[in-house]
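Weekly puzzle thread! Below is a chain. First person to post its structure in token form gets bragging rights.
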Amino acid sequence: MNPMKLAILGASGSIGRQTLSVAEAHPDRFSVCAVSVGRNEEALAAIAARHKPAYAGISEANAKPALPAGTTLLAGSDANAALAALDEVDAVVIAIPGMEAIHALLAAARAKKRIAIANKECLVCGGDFVRREMARFGAKLYPIDSEQSAIFQCLQGIADPEEVSRLILTASGGPFRTWPKDAIADAKPEQALAHPSWRMGKKITVDSASLVNKGLEVIEAHFLFGVPAERIAVAIHPQSIVHSMVETVDGATLAQLGTPDMRLAIQYALTCPQRIESPAAPLDWGKLAQLTFEMPDGDRFPGLPLAYEALRMGGTAPVVYNAADEVAVAAFLDGAIRFGEIAAWIASALEHTPVTPLDGLEAILETDRVVRRFVSERIARASRA
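Winning reply:
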């Protein structure tokens, strides 16, 4: 059997690096054919030197990274989409943050690649448009996020979608799980970045602390699995061992458990329905003292109920939710706003920016531009006041 040739988009990030780890653990199964980064030439050069891909991509058009002989460079804003559509590539791992990933996703779908996706924005913002495009080209998404992967794995054992009663996404609760509301509102960036279970990028770590990340996952699960919002629940699970659950109509609950290691989900997205030995350690049942669950507090973490509101509003409202959060999180990390204001800016954007039908890519991109401008200008104005 020939190794599966991978295009790893966003290879220098957390998911990208762990995907490279999975590939290294199984050289007979996976071959790194193409890699990309954002603007870090040194990171791209180091990855290319180690893995010797046939292609390397970078978003900076004028970049000239030092690449090994035999590696072709693709540079510019369309590099990721070009890599995703390469004839030589069998599977595309989309680990690029932000809305720019949607172009690579659509390119991979049109080229009928196996698509392993860690990017939330494509489904949160793309919604039914992305689902229609996947169906049109016969493409299938394999989720990498631990929670969506858990749901996906549980659903493999259910023959009829009508047998599903609820999806239950678990959340660690983040660093502020037990904090009072006033203290959460004044939390500092270094406190928000101290996640108790996972090591991730700054933006997703802040989102986990505010539970906005869980809100994004609720929206993502709705579009990924076709389950209405009222049948998607969230449970706080501080141990991060139960990654998510599926409740069936007969009252049974299927759960996927594992160590907090993203390589489990990455590998399954590439090998499904087959399972192979993983570089991640299995659970040590003798050391698991307890598994606890509690319901999220929407008053202390208002970003989560706002996600359900965005789904209720429909159209481009999830785009508004995502774009407002991205701008607000960046402002928080820059010290321009308080932690407690992140959800407030999301609410303001949902109230004051237009929500239109989600009838194509341009509607998504235009809404994204409008919301970013609205929130950025309002934050700047408030800072000057």
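Puzzle host: Confirmed. Bonus trivia for everyone else. The two ends are 65 Å apart (CA to CA).
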